[in-house]
Amino acid sequence: MKRLLVVAVVLVGLVAVGAMAADEGPIKIGVVLPMSPPGAYASGNPMWWAVLQAVQEVNEAGGIFGREVVAILGDTRGVPEEARAATERLINKDNVVGIVGNYHSSCALAELDLFKNYHIPYIGAEPWADDVTAKGYDEVFRISITNSMYTDITVDWMVAAGFKRIATVHEITDYALGLEKKLTAAWNEAGIYSEITFTDVKTEDFTPTLINFSQWDPPADMMYGGVTGPGAYRILKQSYDIGLAPSPDTVFYGTNACLNPEVWEVAGEAAKYIVVTQIGLPPSAYTEVTKTENAKFQKAYGRLMNSTVMEGYDSFMLMCEAIKFAGSTHPDAIIDALEVMEWTGMRGTYSFLYGSTNPVPEDQPDYMWHQWPDVSEYLLQYTEVGQSPEDATVVWPPVFSELPEGQYFIPVPEE
Amino acid sequence: MYSPEFFLMQGANGLIMGCLYALMALGLTLIFSVLKVINFAHGEFYMIGGYTAYFLVSVVGGVNPLVGVIFAMAVLLVIGSLFEVSFLRPMHLGSVDRPAEYAILVTFGLSFFLQNLVLALAGPFPHRTSSFMAGGIKIGVLTLSADRLIAAGLSLVLMAALLLFVRKTWTGKAMRAVSQDKDAASVTGINPLSMNNIAFAIGASLAGASGALIAPIFSVVPDVGVLPSLRAFIIVVLGGMGSIKGAIIGGIVIGLVESLGAGLIPDPSRALAYRELYGLIIFVLVLLFRPRGLFGEAA
Predict the structure, then answer these.
(1) Predicted confidence (pLDDT) per residue in B226-254, tens digit
(2) Contact predicate A316/A54, CB 8 Å
(3) If you write DSSP's letter for every residue of B72-140 in order, what string do you get?
């Protein structure tokens, strides 16, 4: 009995020392991103850059509670099992007080139960799969758009534009498969005929399938290039090379990878007249933070930030603001703070409408749990080779559209 | 129903891609036949070839893309030679206990190292070398991408040059002798170590040429070599390990099967997803009925 008491006292002492150390040292926040192959490292690396900007700014402003803030990186490599391992390490070895990030939905989904089991607050930066927040975990918040929210807006545009036949290539990832289901259901409901081909995200040559689509009679109204990363540029160029789209008959719709300047380097004039979705505020509605951070990013990378980079910055800053608001690094306090606070970042004012005090009503989808509801999205169309997304023509929604009423895209001129 | 034009388009695309696949596989099979080493860094040599051409043609500028291909081949020739001397030669000198495992580990290590080195040096964004020739070339009813046609044509030229080299030159014959029997070759005055070095350097150079030829078509990123190297392994086993003829014919077969398979599969939703599978089916069938590959020699 005496020995048991001694062991108990020692254990309590160790826990107390650990807790004191955690309260006195730097505040550690974990960041999970794909930094190396086979993941989407072209997105992960700039997102990490944005996180480091946020860290610098927070520390220059005195840190949080006078303590330094440290971002600790976990490279998921875009592989779910590696994402889990990186998250375990951040939680158990680095003792982070919260985690932000993720680009790949598959990685976020693989980590969810760790956030729940270890009771670690998490803010998803860019995982689109509905299930990330639909599981209703107390610890999980998201500031990116969801597959369902994205589908609603883009399909509204396709219906308004009068598209009846859509040829589609979709990559095989958790994000894209979820999105494909939503899109197909919405197209079916709108009476739009679609034919879908799935592809590995690393595919180099899409030509065989594009040749099939080019044989359609009558031709497709739209070619949906649902591939992210470098594949987004390859499918566009190959589609253009065989005369499929963009063409006078067929509009090409690209993923938001086509907002990067590489679209011009890789696809060249093929990118003229393509339609792309921009997630975030149109330039006319940029906040002060957007303008300041964009200027820094342009200096570092020679380009404007895209929405994923903004999400990297915003998710980290939001976690810092939640800790400040909570007045503590205790997970319950951070979660409570995130549920009630508001903070304006690069993409607007963040708040989470539905949570423990205001549960998701029955007429709202499950994914609205701890989901930022005000994600803005608009569609733009390039009209010049080498054009910046900021200079492209906004074609949807009507409230932002720069086209005459009743026009929804600019057709490719007949040669 | 499918039109004749459809078959012509798919066939032409398959042939073009097949030539590029074959060139990549040729380097791998050459290295295997002489050194008895499977080079797991072959895809990264391909990637470096693409980046080297990009650097010369698009960053330095003012250089014809064809010069970029030659430059990439030269750079990879040097890299291949240095790597062989530094890391593979100890294996052939008997100073490594388990040479087979060592070769796998050292080439795997090189693969990871090169991918991450290029990611750090060149950044994460894709790049594309300027076109050999913009636009399309009309052949009968078909209009084919000029870049693809030129890349395939150059691949054929390089493959023919390699065949001439191994069949007609003393060094080529010496390499073949080493590949058949290293000890017997050394008795005749051939230095197997030199032949190992030349074979590895040429193999790496051919991978670099493939990457440089592909760079104007697909663009390059640090992990661009992963899929082509996997395909090259399949082609090499399909054609027969170490067989140059097998690699060429295997590459063209895989190119055609992938293109026609993706075009003709009844369920179009699986057309691209199963693309590698079509080649693998042929691969499994060949291994079932002819385990040494199409042109491999019996052990």
Answers:
(1) 999 999 999 999 999 889 999 999 999 99
(2) yes
(3) HHHHHHHHHHHHIIIIIHHHHTT-SSSHHHHHHHHHHHHHHHHHHHHHHHH-SS-B-PPPSS-SEEEET
Q: How near does any CA of chain A get to the CA of B31, in Å? A: 25
pLDDT given at position A15: 46
Distance CA A183, CA A156 (A): 11
Closest to B42 in 3D by CA, of B214, B231, B264, B173:
B231
The whole-model pTM stands at 0.87
- Measure the CA–CA gap between A392 and B15, rounded to whole angstroms: 39
Give me the DSSP letters along A200-219: -TT----HHHHHHHHT-SSP
Q: Where in B130-231 does DSSP place strands (E)?
A: 136-139, 142-145
Q: Are A100 and A315 in contact (CB under 8 A)?
A: yes
Using CB atoms within 10 A of its CB, is residue A5 exposed (0-12), middle (13-18) or buried (19+)?
exposed
Q: Which has the closest alpha carbon to A115: A307, A327, A308, A319?
A: A319
Distance from C-alpha of B65 to C-alpha of B96, rounded to nearest angstrom: 42
| Cα B41 from Cα A200, distance rounded (Å) | 22
CA distance A55 to A59: 6
Residue written as tokens 């070895």? Answer: A93
- Cα B121 to Cα B115, B127, B214, B221, B222, distances in angstroms: 10, 13, 21, 12, 10
- Please name the residue of chain B whose CA is at the shortest distance from the CA of residue A47: B124
For residues A98 and A121, the answer to whether their CB atoms sit within 8 Å is yes
Q: How many interface pairs between A and B have CB atoms less than 8 angstroms apart? A: 118
Q: What value of ipTM does the predicted structure carry?
A: 0.89
What type of residue sits at position A87?
A: T
Choose the closest CB to A207 out of B2, B13, B222. Answer: B13
Question: Which among A197, A213, A258 is the top mutation candidate for probing chain B, defined by the most B β-carbons within 10 Å of its own β-carbon?
Answer: A197
Show the CA angle centred on residue A139, arms to residues A135 and A145, nearest 5°.
60
